[in-house]
Amino acid sequence: MSTEKNKLTTSWGAPVGDNQNSITAGPRGPVLIQDVHLLEKLAHFNRERVPERVVHAKGAGAHGYFEVTNDLSAYTKANFLSEVGKRTPMFIRFSTVAGELGSADTVRDPRGFAVKFYTEEGNYDLVGNNTPVFFIRDAIKFPDFIHTQKRHPQTHLKNPNAVWDFWSLSPESLHQVTILMSDRGIPATLRHMHGFGSHTFKWVNAEGQGVWVKYHFKTEQGVQNLAPEVAAQIAGVNADYHTEDLFNAIENGDYPAWKLCVQIMPLEDANTYRFDPFDVTKVWSQKDYPLIEVGRMVLDRNPENYFAEVEQATFSPGTLVPGIDVSPDKMLQGRLFAYHDAHRYRVGANHQDLPINRARNAVNNYQRDGQMRHDNNGGGSVYYEPNSYGGPTETPENKQAAYEVSGLADSVAYDHNDHFTQAGDLYRLLSEDERARLVQTIVGAMQPVEKDEIKLRQIGHFYKADPEYGQRIAEGLGLSVPE
């Protein structure tokens, strides 16, 4: 006899009498449309896959906690950072960027590093990568950039011509390209890489005073990377290598951890710093703005269900809490819209109500209806604002802090266009062995490019970063550095 706990039912809770045989007209059929259990199973199966993410489709996730280890309340009024020892539950999703949902974990690609903090004042999402910079600095170029990383519309193959044509025509990408093509382009595991907020954000304290900040997650496991030939071998044997490694480490009690540090810049320095501090293709020198410890992130619990937690988890840099604001970073400004919009399309208008995304504190607003509304939809309470019925109202003390803006409304680029100094500095920091591998990787990636024009244009960028850098790549491609 089946107990209530293991009694098979339909999605509407009715018991199922036969889950092995369709209802047919006689033993040979045909199948009858009245078999609503069959229709429900097939219809649900057809809809079991939500659209995959356009970017960051392949990912792994875990639960954990964040613990404050240093009092920085002088800089931010964010509640979850308010006192040493305070712990906040969190969820993280790691991902590759360009590949599809079934792609290999060990490809050369940046890794997404998206953290959701379930704070007492709402959720805070820190949505970054394992690199401190990005390929572009204006969101208007993002769709074009991602198109180059996807498949050719005719051949449905990856297209190195598009990749290097875009990069060679977008010299601001040089810094990130150098990182991607270096040893750090293929982390050994998700546990053995740093994470970064990448963008510049603004912290505001209880007195309304602000500072600019950048986030750095430093892995306590140490940085380890894979040689390209090893990564390729693993990809052929176990395409889910990183996903499996993270799950097994946590399952075995080997909990990965990261130390969170920030760089803090006074607001007025933004007007005089030698690089535009809002340009996400640039870093701030740690000599100018040293790392300051904030706390420690520990991952100690695996998801119970991949789809419900990892696949349906939604993150946006616009998911903010009091004490943390945004900056004029043009790439960040575009992401504030694009991420929430992507989730409304992919998961639904009520994606924030799903258990993995729902805030741990009370959520009170006037948003109603929409697909998959699974709570009481506000019941019969007041559904507009302002109102005279005691509905929730704003708290002016939690407005985002003001900052001064000026200038004409126009389509303009950043004022600073030195895309070569920081890439050259990075090249010169590498050991000779690391430089040799970097050059070998770039030469191998550029060899399939059909047009010498594209190769020469990109070689010119490498040369401007460091003459040796450009010369070695030119030689590897059998070309000369252009005049």
Automatic annotation (TrEMBL):
UniProt KW Oxidoreductase keyword: yes
InterPro entries, per the entry: Catalase, Catalase_3, Catalase_AS, Catalase_clade1/3, Catalase_core, Catalase_haem_BS, Catalase_immune_responsive, Catalase_sf
EC top class, as a word: oxidoreductase
Lineage, broadest ranks: Bacteria, Bacillati, Bacillota, Bacilli, Bacillales
Highest taxon above the source species: Bacteria
Tagged with keyword Metal-binding: yes
Family of this protein: Belongs to the catalase family.
EC number: 1.11.1.6
Catalysed reactions, semicolon-separated: 2 H2O2 = O2 + 2 H2O
GO molecular function: catalase activity
Classification via CDD domains: catalase_clade_3
Renumbered residue ranges of the record's region Disordered: 1-25
The organism of origin for this protein: Paenibacillus radicis (ex Xue et al. 2023)
SMART domains hit by this protein: Catalase
Stated name of the protein: Catalase
Composition skew (Polar residues), residue ranges: 8-24
Pfam family, one: Catalase
All copies of domain Catalase core, residue ranges: 9-393
Database matches in SUPFAM superfamilies: Heme-dependent catalase-like
Sorted UniProt keywords: Heme, Hydrogen peroxide, Iron, Metal-binding, Oxidoreductase, Peroxidase
